[in-house]
């Protein structure tokens, strides 16, 4: 099993450009989420989904859109990139419920210039 | 959401037992306590989770007192490869908050 796969691993964008970060999991997990991690900081939750067709906002949702059309995929869209969105983005997935841990992807390092 | 407090950093030597304590005074009745490990340039990795008393797996032990207002992650006989940031999380499993974590440095 591949686990949680994030693409691309690295990306440089110009201010104002848009792009989609891809996240796919093959573990049949209902829950998926996106976090961002700025240098020397913990992870902050952007959006999450508890199943296909269901999404909700996390702590820092502004500037990002998500949709969940399948169980496997949870793409994150940056609508108009800003330098403040320079960060490492991690996707996570798990089964639903209190007693399951998240499985994280290896991250996408995004630089907005 | 329950807030957690843990030491910013800790130092240890190879072969020692390391205990990292996390304070979560406002933990809710149905909250679990979860610990993650993160190496540089990698996503966090789930280590252990518990609700009360003691939980042990092949990697670590988690001690939770009866009042559940704190928890202690115990790493037996650490090695250089245990150098990482360790996060203690409590709260809604759908929207867990990662604080700054505890940076553990293991010396030879």
Explain what the structure shows.
- The complex is a heterodimer of chains A (113) and B (108).
- By secondary structure, chain A is an all-beta fold.
- Chain A is built from no helices and eleven strands.
- In chain A, strands 2, 4, 5, 6, 9, 10 and 11 form a seven-stranded mixed beta sheet that branches. Chain A has a four-stranded antiparallel beta sheet with strand order 1-3-8-7, with no helix packed on it.
- Chain A starts with a strand and ends with a strand.
- With 108 residues, chain B is an all-beta fold.
- Chain B contains no helices and nine strands.
- In chain B, the strands form two sheets. A five-stranded mixed beta sheet of chain B has the order 1-9-8-3-4, with no helix packed on it.
- The model of chain B has no long low-confidence stretch (mean pLDDT 94).
- The interface between A and B is medium-sized, with 30 and 23 residues.
* Radius of gyration of chain A, in angstroms, nearest whole number: 13 Å
How are helices and strands ordered from N to C of chain A? EEEEEEEEEEE
What's the rounded overall pLDDT mean of chain A?
95
Strand content of chain A: over 45%
Helix fraction of chain A? under 10%
Number of helices of chain A: 0
What is the overall pLDDT average of chain B?
94
User: How would you describe the shape of chain A?
Assistant: globular
Class by helix and strand content of chain A?
A: mainly beta
The helicity of chain B comes to under 10%
Shape of chain B: globular
Assembly type = heterodimer
How would a textbook summarize the main sheet of chain A?
Answer: 7 strands, mixed
**Number of extended strands of chain B:** 9
Largest interface, Cβ cutoff 8 Å: A-B, 30 and 23 residues
Strand content of chain B: over 45%
Describe the SSE topology.
The complex is a heterodimer of chains A (113) and B (108).
Chain A lengths: L3 E4 L2 E4 L5 E7 L5 E7 L5 E9 L2 E4 L6 E3 L9 E3 L8 E8 L8 E2 L3 E5 L1
Parallel strand pairs in A: 2-11
Antiparallel strand pairs in A: 1-3, 3-8, 4-5, 4-9, 5-6, 7-8, 9-10, 9-11
Chain B lengths: L8 E5 L4 E6 L9 E6 L6 E6 L2 E4 L4 E4 L5 E6 L8 E7 L11 E6 L1
Parallel strand pairs in B: 1-9
Antiparallel strand pairs in B: 2-7, 3-4, 3-8, 5-6, 6-7, 8-9
């Amino acid at each position: 099993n591949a686990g949680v796969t994030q693409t691309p691993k690295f990306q440089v964008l110009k201010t104002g450009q848009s792009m989609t970060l891809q996240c796919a999991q093959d573990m049949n997990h209902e829950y998926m989420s996106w976090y961002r991690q700025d240098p020397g900081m913990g992870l902050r939750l952007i959006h999450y989904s508890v199943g296909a067709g269901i999404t909700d906002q996390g702590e820092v949702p502004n500037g990002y859109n998500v949709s969940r059309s399948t169980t496997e995929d949870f793409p994150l869209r940056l609508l108009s990139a800003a330098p403040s969105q320079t960060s490492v983005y991690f996707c996570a997935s798990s089964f639903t419920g209190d007693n399951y841990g998240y499985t994280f992807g290896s991250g996408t390092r995004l630089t907005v210039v | 959401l329950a807030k957690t407090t843990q030491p910013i950093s800790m130092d240890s030597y190879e072969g020692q037992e390391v205990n990292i304590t996390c304070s979560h005074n406002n933990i809710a009745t149905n909250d679990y306590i979860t610990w993650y490990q993160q190496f540089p340039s990698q996503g966090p990795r789930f280590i252990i989770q518990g609700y009360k008393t003691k939980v042990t797996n092949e990697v670590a032990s988690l001690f939770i007192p009866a009042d559940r207002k704190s928890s202690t992650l115990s790493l037996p006989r650490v090695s250089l490869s245990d150098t990482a940031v360790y996060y203690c999380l409590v709260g809604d499993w759908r929207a867990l908050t990662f604080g700054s974590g505890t940076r553990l440095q293991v010396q030879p």
